[in-house]
Amino acid sequence: METLTIARPDDWHLHLRDGAALADVVHWSAARFGRAIIMPNLTPPLTTTDAVAAYRERILAARPAGSRFEPLMTLYLTDNTPAREIERAAATGFIHAVKLYPAGATTNSDSGVTDLRRCDEALAAIAEHDLTLCLHGEVTHPETDIFDREAVFLDERLAPLLDRHRHLRVVLEHLTTATAVDFVRQGPERLGATITPQHLLMNRNDLLAGGIRPHHYCLPILKREGDRAALLEAATSGHPRFFLGTDSAPHAQSAKEDACGCAGIFTAPLAIELYAEAFEQAGALDRLEGFASHFGADFYGLPRATDTLTLTRQARRLPDTLPYGDARIVPLRAGGTIDWSLASDPQTESA
Ligand SMILES: NC(=O)N[C@@H](CC(=O)O)C(=O)O
Ligand SMILES: [Zn+2]
Ligand SMILES: [Zn+2]
C-alpha cells in the first residue's frame, strides 16, 4: 500500500463553533493537525481576551482523550477594539492573531469593522505586539458584484492598509482568485495567504451547473476555472507565503439546505486528504509538506512540528451526514469517496 508521511500539518484557518457541536467537530481536526488558528466568529463574537480564554478552555476540554491538538486563538476586531485589549491578548501567549471581518461580509460578521481607518490604533498595537492580522478580504458594498468582492478589496482596502502599517504582519485568508495570487506574490514578505481545499479542487460550475449545490457554497464564493488553476499553481509552487488554511466551516444541514442557505463548507473530516488529492492532480505531492506543515509555522514565527502524519492510498467513503450537536451535518464529498485515508484512523472505512 502506498503511503505518504509528512511533518504533522497545521490548519491556519479553522471554525470549531461552540456548545454541543464543539466535541462533534474538534476531533476531526485533532486527528489530522497539530495546531490550528481558531476563528472567533461565534455568537456573540469573541471581542475580549477573557471571552477568547474561556472559549480556549472549552476547546481543550472537548478534545478527544490524550489529544495534544493545540488551538491557537484569535481575537475579533471591531471598530472599537482598544489598543490595550490587543496588548492584553498578546500577553496571554495563546492568542496569536486578530481577525478582521469587514462588517456584513460573512457568517457572524455583523460586529466587524465598518471602516479600517477607525482601527488605526488597534492595528498599530497588533504590529507592536507582534501579533498577526488575519483578513476576510472582501468588500461588502451591495453595488459590487459578489464575484468581484475580493479583487476590489485588494485595491481599495488591503493595499492602503499595508502602506499605512508598514510593520503589520497580515494573512489574507481563503484566496479565491488569480488576481489575489498575483497580489500576494508581489506583496511584501510580511503578507502571507491561506488557500482552502475547496478552492483548489472546485470552480463555480461545481456550485451552479446542473443544479445549485448548497454544500459547495462558501465565502468568498468559488470562482472560475482559471482562478482555481492559479491557486493550485501557487499552492504547489513551493512559495513560502502560501500555506494551508481549510476554512472548515460547519453549519447544520438544515441551515445549508434552505431557501437562504448559509455560507461555509465542512471539510474537517477529510481536510488533509483533499489537499493530497489536489497536490497529486498537479503532480506535486512532494510539495505538500512545505505548504501544509512548514510555511505557516515559519510565517507565524512558531516552531515546525516534530512529529509526523501518514496518509495511505486507500479509498474511503464519506457518510451522507455526521452528528453535529443535536443536529446533523453534511461534509464535503458526502456519499462520495476520497482516495486517501489516515494511516491510523479508527473511523476509516474502506470504500
Ligand atoms: N467561509 C465561509 O463561507 N463561512 C465561514 C466564515 C468565513 O470564513 O468567511 C463561517 O464561519 O461559516
Ligand atoms: Zn472568511
Ligand atoms: Zn472562515
UniProtKB/TrEMBL annotation:
Q: At what positions is N6-carboxylysine found?
A: 99
> What cofactors does this protein use?
Zn(2+)
- What are its E.C. numbers? 3.5.2.3
Active site positions: 247
**UniProt keywords, alphabetically:** Hydrolase, Metal-binding, Pyrimidine biosynthesis, Zinc
Which segments constitute the Amidohydrolase-related domain? Answer: 11-304
Protein residues bound to substrate: 15-17, 41, 136, 219, 251, 263
Sequence similarity: Belongs to the metallo-dependent hydrolases superfamily. DHOase family. Class II DHOase subfamily.
| Function noted in UniProt | Catalyzes the reversible cyclization of carbamoyl aspartate to dihydroorotate.
Question: What's this protein's name?
Answer: Dihydroorotase
